[in-house]
Amino acid sequence: MMEDIQLSDAVERFLQGQMDAEELSRFEQLRKSNPELDQFVVEHSIFLNQLNEFGDRKQFRSALQEIHHNLLDTGAIKPRAPKAKVVDIVRKYRRVWAVAASIASIIAITVSGLVAYFTPNFTKPQIEQLSRKVNILEKQQNALTHEVRDSTKVTTRVPVNETYKFGGTGFLIDAKGYLVTNAHVIKDAKTILVQNRGQEFKALIVKIDTERDLAILKIEDPEFKPFASLPYGFKKTGADLGEQIFTLGFPRDEIVYGEGYMSASTGYNGDTMSCQIAVAANPGNSGGPVFNKNGEVVGILSTRQLQAQGFVFAVTAKNIFKSLDELKKDTTYQNIRINTLSSVKGMERPLQIKKIEDCVFLVKTYQ
Amino acid sequence: MTTASQEKELLKGLAKSDKQAAETIYKDNYNMVQSLIINNNGSADDARDIFQETMIVLYEKAKSGTFELNCQLKTFIYSVSRRLWLKRLHQLQKYSRRVENIAETVPVEEEIENHEHRNNQFQAMENSLQNLGEPCKSLLEAYYLQKRSMTEIAGSFGYTNADNAKNQKYKCLMRLKKLFFAQHKTKGQ
């Protein structure tokens, strides 16, 4: 046993050229006199070489990802959208399409009628929205910071005569300063501040979509500097069952990381707009992004079931796209672009988070 | 425009995993490959995958020390990317009538074949590592992939001393080797 370890060690040193002349000649001698040992050395060398090159390749791959991200940031390379080549196809299959479309529309109407007819009417008292009620202590603390700010004559964004009521999480969908969060996070808010790394920005509501429980905000603050690009992308098709996911959110005033997996493709009571994930979530996590391992947004964390442990639900990413499409009908918002490419794909998790966390905000509402 | 001697320097740097060199090559060639992929049925995502695969081919060739570049670097990269993309299209059964050339190409069949062979081997290694289980997987990764020292590893994995960690590492290595060669053999048949 001990000998084997020494032998394996010797092969490693031999491969790295760490043997001195004397040891090397003894080693060669040993190989010549013992064919079994020679066989081992050959086999072991092949294997170790493979392992080392495998490590090399892995490191180079993650270096490439980082380079890609850096070059995108500096604008040295630009992602280009594919050319559309559909004109021919449209012309060629016009009749087929017309027939297919009419059949599809008949089916769609029938199905939606049936669904409306059979859907049970229920309210959802059994689930809890994960926005965070701020307790009295924090209010007092806020009042204190007010005083501090007043005394140092720093201009504050905290509105006078309004109190910090609820907190949630929001994250950028467009580098120009558009955020998405849950509609219930900003319900009844008079003023909304978003905070990242201790810096607060004022945000305005662009759209509230209570049906999907989504809200789109825009940071309107002279101090906010738009990002060049977002490190993460959005995945319209969501995540598959069992896929590893991770979340970032603000259940405290500090950003908190959570890890889990996709556990069901529908949400509470079979709700198809959301999905179920297994991840630790607390009030304040609402509106936070749910990423797959490539750093692509697959959902927005929204609610959890009250009576059971570990039932957390997220609105699927598809709904962000739908909600945005509706918003884009308004010409003022036509320039919102959703990025589908994640530039943190393949990176180690801590590095991914480092790139992503700047785009995740604590959403504070005042009433 | 880079001259032949500059390109040689870049490849030398790349072989030593010099990040600056890799970044320069990346910056100078990415847009060309992206145009190729996007003009031929691909997305920006595909372009990134194919280009990075090409960079790996280049890196491993440069590292082997036997690489003689007898055309412009740009031409080599373009040829490899084009070939890889044709293969990918074929696998996806998305036949396009032909992949348009926007630049000249050199034959790179041999490189691609070597690369695929290596990919298979690395896949076998990856699978073996996955099947190895913890703490063996992390221990071996720390030593062979992240190149951390034995004393450091002993500290972070909770072994009493470097010798103990070394003992454990040896056992893990032997198990990995067994798994790896078993995969290799079944693949070979």
- CATH architecture tag of the largest domain in chain A: Beta Barrel
Poorly predicted parts of chain A: 150-155
Distance between the termini of chain A: 72 Å
What portion of residues of chain A is helical? 25-40%
Largest contact between chains: A-B, 35 and 44 residues
CATH class of the largest domain in chain B: Mainly Alpha
- Average pLDDT of chain B works out at 80
- Strand proportion of chain A, as a percent range, falls in 15-25%
The string of secondary-structure elements of chain A, in order, is HHHHHEEHEEEEEEEEEEEEHHE
What does this structure look like?
The complex is a heterodimer of chains A (367) and B (189). With 367 residues, chain A is of the alpha+beta class. Chain A has two domains: 73 residues; 240 residues, Thrombin, subunit H (Beta Barrel), CATH 2.40.10.120. Helix content of chain A is 37%, strand content 25%. Chain A contains eight helices and 15 strands. In chain A, the strands form two sheets. Chain A has a six-stranded antiparallel barrel with strand order 9-10-11-14-13-12. A six-stranded antiparallel beta barrel of chain A has the order 3-4-7-6-5-15. In chain A, a hairpin with a 3-residue loop joins strand 3 and strand 4. Chain A is extended. By secondary structure, chain B is mostly helical. Chain B has two domains: 104 residues, Rna Polymerase Sigma Factor, Chain: A; 78 residues, Arc Repressor Mutant, subunit A (Orthogonal Bundle), CATH 1.10.10. The longest helix of chain B is centred in the last third of the chain and has 27 residues. The mean pLDDT of chain B is 80. At the A-B interface, helix 1 and helix 3 of A face helix 2, helix 3, helix 5, helix 6 and helix 8 of B.
